[in-house]
Amino acid sequence: MISSRLARVEESATMKSSKRAKDLMSRGVDVINFTLGEPDFDTPKNIMDKTIEAMKAGETHYSPAVGLPALREAIAEKLRTENNIDTKAGNVMVTPGAKHGIFEVMMTMIDEGDEVLLLDPSWVSYDACIQMAGGKTVWVPTDPENKYQPLHDLSKYITKKTKMIVVNTPCNPTGSVFDKSHLQEIADLANDHNLFVLSDEIYEKIIYDKKHISIASMDGMADRTITINGFSKAYAMTGWRLGYLNAPASVFPSLEKIQSHSISNVTTFVQYGGLEALTGPQDTVMNMQKEFKERRSVLVDGLVKLGLKCDMPDGAFYAYPDVSEFGPGARITDRLLDEAQVAVSPGIAFGESGKNNIRISYATSVDRIKEALIRMEKVFQ
Ligand SMILES: Cc1ncc(COP(=O)(O)O)c(C=O)c1O
């Protein structure tokens, strides 16, 4: 009854733990929910105002499939000036969220049996999108002793069937921000073996002491990189479903085809909100980053005091402690919810290497983080 494409895809384990938490909450239990991958801030008011204005002005019709010309121009300008990517509006497609952009890229580029290198651990939806496209995920270890940076020599994972490498920096779930030297090694590998890179940069603006580097800005990479980004995390716009991709001319027309036959276009007035996000004041982005930075310190310092092995993440809003001293990550996830009413995600959801970890999203207030740390003492003693 169900297509084999979908039968290969498991329900997301992060969704499972967040569903369990929500179920308890709906029964009145005071759960501190650290499973969410979304900022707890409201979308900035200037973005909402411009969107409402656009709607009232009659921007309620279809837009071009690839997006409003003005928004594509603004995105291309941002990619050129902030990310040093040599591009133009004609290579930019507005998508309904970064996630759908990733799905479209996999459906467009991956054939039955093609191999895609995925760094272990990785965000849950890459593997699912690869499976749906009929591809094969080849998991590649990262270095937990070096904040989950990619390993040095990835060439041994490459076969004749390898088509693409997925890079996600800042990374969900580890918070790792990849160094230039590691990105350069991946770029060299892609150039040497004629591979494409999907570079997911959705957490680019949630970065603390390091600088974000776009792999598409490196030599030879603009023609083989599809850069994915969006508005969900930087501008607290998760529910708007607004993202974008930048792709070389060799694949862009096919991406346009899949978008026009699947969604037609991203909701037209929502795209005006995106235009305001990019071209309007940026102070709310900075304020959110400051707040995340404070939460990060409170949480990670607290976890270390509890005896957990936990690096200070350089980006995103996740801590990824190793809990093996107290039990496997999945068991600790259950115990935290059952005994302390603290909901986290098991590291195993993000790849085999995560079996000893849990992921804690600190998109929650400092007061709630402090309370959670007190509750967690029951489990970590
Ligand atoms: C690494 C990563 N990429 C993409 C997304 C999805 O972003 P969007 O809301 O733009 O679809 C997420 C959401 O959690 C994510 O963690």
From TrEMBL:
Residues 30-373 form the Aminotransferase class I/classII large domain. GO terms for molecular function: pyridoxal phosphate binding; transaminase activity. It holds the Pfam family Aminotran_1_2. The keyword Transcription does not apply. Its EC number is 2.6.1.-. Signal peptide: none annotated. It is an enzyme of class 2 (transferase). GO terms for biological process: amino acid metabolic process. InterPro entries: Aminotransferase_I/II_large (IPR004839), AspAT/PAT-like (IPR050596), NHTrfase_class1_PyrdxlP-BS (IPR004838), PyrdxlP-dep_Trfase (IPR015424), PyrdxlP-dep_Trfase_major (IPR015421), PyrdxlP-dep_Trfase_small (IPR015422). The keyword Mitochondrion does not apply. Belongs to the class-I pyridoxal-phosphate-dependent aminotransferase family. Homodimer. This is Aminotransferase. It comes from Methanolapillus africanus.
